[in-house]
Design goal:
119 residues, four-stranded antiparallel beta sheet, 7 strands
Length: 119
């Protein structure tokens, strides 16, 4: 049952992310967060930042060229999320990937995209 729900969530995330894509931009992958999702495209990171306490949400877009540092918090055996930090000159963005999602895969894919842009 959990597998089908996860597959359904991925489909919903891909559909939602598609509405934020610009011309010639390709969606590479989506990952579930504690509240919503993060998407990697061939140009940027897009995530929807929703609030627990209100109905407001914010779509955040970070071009790979603006990312200065990424960090993955490891060794949290009892945690329900795997935090990833994306740092830009102006802000630190903390993404709480759902435990069981491939946080290391997200970190590697994001690193690959950043390194590709730097070349």
């Amino acid at each position: 049952m959990a597998f089908w729900k996860k597959a359904e969530n991925r489909k919903n995330h891909r559909e939602q992310a598609s509405e934020y894509l610009v011309e010639d931009e390709q969606l590479l992958q989506t990952y579930g967060l504690m509240i919503d999702f993060v998407a990697l495209t061939n140009r940027r990171v897009i995530f929807v930042n929703k609030s627990f306490v209100s109905k407001r949400s914010e779509v955040v877009s970070i071009p790979y060229t603006k990312i200065e540092e990424i960090a993955l918090l490891k060794d949290r055996k009892l945690a329900i999320s795997n935090p990833v930090r994306i740092s830009t000159r102006s802000n630190n963005h903390h993404l709480n990937l759902i435990k069981g999602n491939d946080a290391t895969g997200f970190y590697k894919q994001l690193s690959r995209q950043i390194l590709t842009i730097d070349q």
